[in-house]
Design goal:
- With 429 residues, the chain is an alpha+beta fold.
- It has two domains: 128 residues, Schlafen, AAA domain (Methyltransferase, Cobalt-precorrin-4 Transmethylase, Domain 2), CATH 3.30.950.30; 224 residues, no CATH class.
- The chain is 31% helix and 24% strand.
- Strands 9, 10, 11, 14, 15, 17, 19 and 20 form an eight-stranded antiparallel sheet that branches.
- The longest helix has 33 residues.
- The radius of gyration is 26 Å and the shape is elongated.
Length: 429
């Protein structure tokens, strides 16, 4: 995408915006749009949709068509964010900067080319950028001939948008979904099920996200993981950190230890752009029926989100746009899930569980797991600002981390969730 006054977005200053507007050639075009303060939220959403569905661009808010700086009174940065999040589905990748020119406040909205088009407004319309204007992909025409011609153009535009979407979905799949574990290997005699999870991240400032990634205090993270008194590892592979938990090995026919098959481990891969993929194993002795599933609760509720937050910090929510999330449970052998309350758990938690389990089984019987499943079943769950608003959840980094790592399988098998069971992260500190 073009830069304003040849300056990267993170280095753009008021003087650069002024120089750009003073340039006689800086009129409205394919990548630039000027809007006054009186512009309605619906019309602003239309422009954002058009840029996201095409090749991205900039909206100057507080500037008229003749490039006169009129300033903004009604529009604020918060109102811009709310308008875009509330009026477009899905939420495009955008950022907002405030500038003061000639004593007047204006906003510049940078809209990236959308990765999962089409981007539709609340009235069900989608727009594309043509020359210096934004036009609906499907629109009426006065004559049958023009209408027929327009329909062909609209169909072509729609096909392009949906092909782009399908291509991006394939990219997300390749990025965050893991290959299945082959069950022929003897290593699987103790494997009953495994949970795969992941999310593909979009932020407003990839350079800032990558900077956080590169400056992560891995020694501090290692100290945190060591507090759980289990084997762990931290590796740097390509553009990713790989965090592994526990030590799992296999044995050959002679009982000799051999490396386990690829992917047979509890691990989380964190990519430089904030995306994640990972796996949690549910294991037991070969002839077991009851399998401890507390590991899902511990890793997804406590360890994984904590490690992730230690990398990206307290202000992560400020650059977050949206994430495409999924999880998949694969059942290798049927089993009965239990929470193995060891002596390392607090007495209160153990007593609560002792009371909970008999009551649950009295109502529902033996909660045996026979098959797995993928959530969501089709496509991916989109987590964005609107997701928080609909759920009446406060939008901050703490809640964002929790939702990104939320697992629908953390209370695996149980109808009345034992949600008062907690992993005591403080016990070893």
């Amino acid at each position: 995408m073009l830069n304003i006054n040849n300056k990267p977005w993170d280095k753009l200053r008021s003087i650069d915006v002024r120089k750009y507007l003073d340039n006689p050639d800086s009129c409205e075009n394919f990548f630039f749009e000027y809007k006054e303060d009186k512009e309605s939220p619906q019309k602003l959403a239309k422009e954002i949709s058009a840029f996201a569905n095409t090749y991205g661009g900039y909206v100057f808010l507080g500037v008229d068509d003749d490039k006169n700086v009129l300033g903004c009174v009604e529009w604020t940065e918060q109102r811009i964010h709310v308008t875009i999040h509330d009026n477009l589905t899905p939420t495009p990748n955008f950022d907002v900067k405030r500038f003061v020119l000639k004593g007047k406040k204006i906003f510049v909205i940078k809209v990236e080319e959308g990765v999962i088009p089409p981007y539709m407004t609340n009235d069900g319309k989608m727009y594309e950028r043509i020359s210096s204007g934004s036009f609906p992909v499907s629109k009426s025409a006065k004559s049958q001939k023009v209408e027929r011609t327009q329909s062909i153009k609209d169909l072509s535009a729609l096909n392009q948008l949906y092909e782009k979407r399908k291509d991006q979905i394939r990219r997300i799949k390749d990025k965050i979904e893991l290959p299945e574990i082959r069950i022929e290997n003897s290593v699987h005699s103790k494997l009953f099920a495994y949970l795969d999870f992941g999310f593909s991240m979009v932020t407003t400032d990839i350079s800032r996200t990558r900077d956080k990634f590169n400056k992560a205090d891995l020694e501090k993270i290692g100290k945190y993981l060591r507090s759980f008194n289990s084997g762990f590892g931290i590796s740097f592979i390509g553009d990713s950190y790989l965090f592994s938990f526990g030590t799992l090995v296999s044995k050959d026919t002679r009982g000799k230890h051999i490396p386990a098959e690829n992917g047979y481990h509890n691990f989380m891969e964190v990519m430089y752009d904030g995306s994640v993929c990972g796996r949690i194993l549910l294991t037991g002795e070969e002839n077991d029926e009851c399998i401890d599933v507390k590991v899902v609760f511990a890793l997804m509720n406590e360890i994984y989100p904590t490690v992730y937050s230690m990398i990206f910090g307290e202000k992560f929510y400020k650059t977050f746009v949206h994430a495409n999330q999924y999880e998949k449970l694969t059942v290798v052998k049927q089993f009965v899930p239990i929470y193995d309350m060891s002596v390392s758990d607090s007495l209160e938690v153990r007593e609560r569980y002792k009371r909970y389990l008999p009551e649950h089984r009295k109502k529902y019987g033996n909660n045996i797991i026979i098959i797995g499943g993928r959530l969501p079943r089709n496509d991916y769950l989109i987590i964005d600002r609107r997701f928080f608003d609909k759920g009446n959840i406060k939008y901050n980094s703490e809640n964002l981390y929790r939702e990104l790592f939320y697992s629908s399988y953390k209370s695996l098998g149980y109808i009345d969730s034992p949600n008062d069971l907690k992993v005591d992260s403080e016990k070893n500190e």
